[in-house]
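Practice problem 4.
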């Protein structure tokens, strides 16, 4: 299995911290966020990685080079236009080829064993991918996921408003006391995902959304297994989160 890491954004919420560095290269306990991710992928047996770069791409490329320092192969693809997460994986299409791949955002930190658990879940049945979720997060800032009794994905609602959540409750899709599963931003897909990203239209936000591609993937008959993240899951979104990581408050 290969891995694709989305690391093209500037990370404007980091303010002056990302003037010279792309957000995935900010350091957490002495190492760049991206390095934590890549060493976790290596522990899971992945040896080929494509990093989608954009803002300050040369910083990432200079640090990781061809990957030989870590005993892996690292290649790069430049996302020149920041038009959403839905089209970003397409820059790695040639790299992926006919292989299954793990896709992660470059600013999500989890315990290293998470990647191994994802691969194990993927191989449990004839799944077409894995979607990771966390429990109890503010789903208005991301995707709200619904699952069948086998914990396979049935629907994604991107950044639902309070009114939408109430509507989901009124229609019975969201039961009282039922857990809210928040999209954790790490996936496994088969190359068939690219048939869906190619069909994307821009969302009302003016961007191509990865969750829209996932909806198309499901509608095409592909089966996505769910996996709840155990232990640490951190979206390194702002300086306050970075400070908590540095001080050991988010282990």
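Answer key:
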């Amino acid at each position: 299995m290969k891995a694709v890491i989305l690391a093209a954004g500037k990370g404007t919420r980091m303010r002056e911290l990302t003037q010279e560095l792309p957000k995935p290269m900010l350091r957490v306990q002495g190492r760049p966020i991206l390095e934590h991710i890549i060493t976790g992928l290596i522990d899971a047996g992945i040896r080929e990685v494509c990093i989608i770069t954009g803002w300050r791409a040369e910083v990432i490329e200079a640090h990781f080079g061809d990957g030989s320092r870590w005993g892996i192969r690292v290649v790069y693809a430049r996302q020149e236009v920041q038009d959403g997460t839905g089209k970003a994986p397409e820059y790695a299409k040639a790299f992926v080829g006919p292989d299954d791949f793990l896709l992660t955002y470059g600013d999500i930190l989890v315990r290293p064993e998470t990647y191994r658990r994802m691969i194990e879940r993927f191989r449990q049945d004839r799944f077409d991918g894995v979607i990771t979720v966390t429990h109890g997060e503010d789903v208005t800032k991301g995707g709200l996921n619904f699952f069948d009794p086998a914990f396979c994905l049935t629907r994604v609602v991107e950044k639902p408003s309070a009114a939408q959540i109430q509507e989901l409750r009124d229609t019975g899709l969201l039961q009282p006391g039922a857990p809210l599963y928040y999209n954790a931003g790490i996936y496994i897909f088969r190359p068939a995902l690219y048939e869906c990203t190619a069909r994307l239209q821009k969302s009302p936000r003016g961007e191509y959304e990865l969750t829209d591609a996932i909806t198309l993937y499901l509608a095409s008959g592909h089966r996505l297994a769910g996996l709840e993240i155990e232990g640490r899951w951190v979206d390194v979104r702002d300086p306050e989160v970075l400070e908590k990581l540095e001080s050991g408050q988010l282990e």
